[in-house]
Design brief:
Order of helices and strands: HEHHEHHHH
Largest sheet: 2 strands, antiparallel
Strand content: under 5%
Radius of gyration: 28 Å
Distance between the termini: 119 Å
Number of strands: 2
Helix content: over 70%
């Protein structure tokens, strides 16, 4: 009988110690989710192209929302993940300036959307760590930087083409190798010049 009491007593002591250890581990992990971290700002659209994108509300909304992520905790990021995903989904599906309806730009939007979806999924993972949220946040910021970088490239290319004052009929371009944005700009330049000639005659 004494042996049974000793065994039960020993079992209770061991169980209590394990519960204490679990509680200590949980308490250590939770504060790391509340530590505020500093993140780099996403690459911006060049100031010289602000005029061309000023009416693009969905792009502006994502940019402003990500601006909140400069000094933020993992817990705050997860609590804002659904709203961020919704804004990116809207940017992806809503109408955009025609020159951005090209596969290379759409691919960057898809990558950005996938990264935000991954962040939303993290909300449902009980064992998620602050480090994992941190890494995913950096991926989202980098993906949005790639979107803005592509916008800068497209607008720079368009500006360059608009500045060219040579009639393409005389410079031997292979029209089968010109992308849709370039072709449209060339056609618009030709049309404008034809209209100017007609007015002057």
């Amino acid at each position: 009988m004494k042996n049974i009491i000793y065994v039960l007593g020993l079992f209770c002591i061991i169980s209590c110690n394990e519960t204490k250890e679990d509680t200590i581990v949980e308490n250590k992990d939770k504060p790391s989710m509340s530590i505020v971290r500093k993140y780099a700002t996403a690459k911006k659209i060049s100031p010289i192209y602000q005029e061309e994108t000023k009416d693009w509300a969905e792009l502006k909304a994502v940019d402003e929302f990500l601006g909140r992520f400069q000094n933020v905790s993992a817990k705050e990021i997860l609590s804002n993940s659904i709203e961020l995903e919704g804004l990116v989904a809207s940017l992806k599906k809503e109408s955009k300036p025609e020159m951005f309806n090209i596969p290379s730009f759409k691919a960057r939007l898809n990558i950005l959307h996938n990264e935000t979806l991954r962040l939303v999924d993290m909300r449902d993972i009980p064992a998620i760590t602050a480090t994992e949220v941190d890494e995913q946040t950096k991926k989202i910021i980098n993906s949005f930087s790639a979107v803005n970088d592509k916008i800068n490239t497209i607008l720079s290319k368009k500006r360059f083409e608009d500045a060219i004052d040579i009639d393409v009929k005389y410079i031997g371009l292979d029209s089968t190798k010109i992308d849709s944005v370039s072709k449209k700009s060339i056609n618009e330049n030709l049309q404008r010049k034809l209209e100017e000639k007609t007015k002057n005659q």
